[in-house]
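Input:
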Amino acid sequence: MNEKIINILLIEDDEVDVMNVKRAFKKNNITNPLVVANNGLDALLYLRKTQHEKPSELPRIILLDLNMPKMGGIEFLKELRHDEHLKNLSVFIMTTSNEDRDKIDAYNLNVAGYILKPLSMDRFIEAVSTLNNYWKLCEFPD
Amino acid sequence: MFKGIFNRLYRINIGTRTAFSFLAVVIVSLFFSVAALLLLEYSKKIDTKISDKYRPVISALKDYQSQIETTILLSSDISSQYNEKKRRVLTKQLDRTYNEKKLTVIGMSQEASMEGIRLNVIEIDGKFQKIMEKERAILALMKGPEDYNDKEKLRVSRLINDEIEILNNPLSAKLEETSMEAIYIFRKLEAQKYASYRTLSYLLVVMIVIIIVVSIFSIYITQETIIKPIKEISGILDELSEGKVLTFQSEVYRNDEIGTMIESAKKVAAGFKTKTEVANAIGKGNYLINVPLLSKSDKLGKALVEMRNNLQKAKETEEKSRLELQEYTAILEKKNQELDQFAYVASHDLKSPLRGIHNLTDWIQEELGDNLQGASLGYFNMLKGRVQRMESLINALLKYARSGKTLTEQRILPSKDSIIHVLKRINPPNNIAIYFEETLPTVFGNKKDFETVLYAFITNAIKHNEKADRIVNITFKEQGSEIAFCITDNGPGIEQEYHQKIFGIFQTLNRKDEVENLGAGLAIARKIIVEYGGSIWLESELGKGASFYFTWPKDNVTKLV
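Output:
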């Protein structure tokens, strides 16, 4: 069961944050392939293309930032949930926004979790570790 | 009963009426005066007549009579006895005095009414001439004392004397009659005089009566036709002046001065009424109304026009400033919203690079590992501390920008429940005693807003207190449509000069690098309270604890609706 490798898509525009996630993955010995998209639009293009060409490589987990250029997180989520092939993907919001409005909008679009980016690296590593445990525990359809 | 007469009178001017009555009085007085004067003149004439003519005639007649009687007496004496003195007197009287007296009577009785007396005197004189002849005969016969010794002469003398007696009898009767006639005429004149005096007195009585009647009548007419209407008009004018009535109604329709006065009063009343209507219309905001001017110098009208124009100007100015204020308020609201939005966006965008800096610092520290030592390690930790504080500040700023009155979910809140809820959230340490009353009032508002405010005050009361046994007391007081809450602590207290300052954002009286104490809680509480229309203040002295007050709307029924 553990051998099943799940692709993870990180949608994040900040280079440091991308590095942060990569470092956290490394620290937690997470070997899942990590694909990075710089905004919602790129992410959608990638997902549709992969779903079309190599459906087996389609990431089941998406880590999504909210504030991004071109297409923001909430906008991306709306598109995703309307897409017949992509609407069942698990999305975790990873953001700096502590606004109720954002939280409510996100959960209304069926996100799996809403995580505030902590300031310290250690706490972020902890958070990613927890996430890893979570998705390792879950079963996904083939 | 005089209505008909009065109505006819009202057609004539009072001036004309007065002139007519004055003329009538003058004519009546003149008539009576002339009549009295004529009567007086008449009686005076009679009086003059009596004194000038009749009295002398009567006395002359008496003289004449006594003259005749004296001569007869004298001749009778002389006829039988000698008396020189009597003889001389008789001679004298027969020669001169008698004629004198007779002519006096005749001369005096030339008046027509005394024709009878004159004729009688002439007749008497005719008869007396005969007596005088006999008397002269006696005188001629008896010249001296010796003649009286002669018996024949004495006999003749006595015989003559007897003849005189015979002649004298009818004569004296006639004389008596004449005298009586004169007295009768005199009496008649006297009677005429008295009659005229009586007439005069009657005339005076009649005149007085007429004057009294005329005076009473004219007073009555004046009372009825002038004083009564004037009183009525002045009464109505009084009411008009006191503002009780605005119309002038009179039953009297007349053409005289009173009528003119009533018409003028009616005009005044109508003017007042129009002015009042105009003033009312102006008062109700009709500034387009035309103010009717009664004349070019209608001061009240001009004042109204000025009032209307000034009010119109004032209203225009007010409207203008109201619009300006509205515009300004809208702009201000927009600016505030923009400011909040700006604070939110700015702080949000500030957070990403900050996190980047923090991460990079971490990584550098990680890479360097043990190579990072001494002061450099300290600087690194200080750097991270500052970055963390900046994130806290940005978070607080975000919270402040987002805070305020929440317009949704406004309802009745039991304040006690809110306090208990907040205390559970704070979870205060064991050495703090928090007191509040068993029954606390209900308030009206958004639960989260109210609890944010309570949270800020209670944490503020706990946070700054370093005593071993900390006490927080929560009380309340009703204040009109609001509830004033008071949160008292036994902490260090706050100096007067900082009382306003501590409600500003990031204003804290402690050191800047204490992460826990950002100074945003009270600022957020103040923002919420002010937006609910309440106020916030504190009473405190250094070393004597502090009492923080804030007011919150009551659970008014009107606000529920």
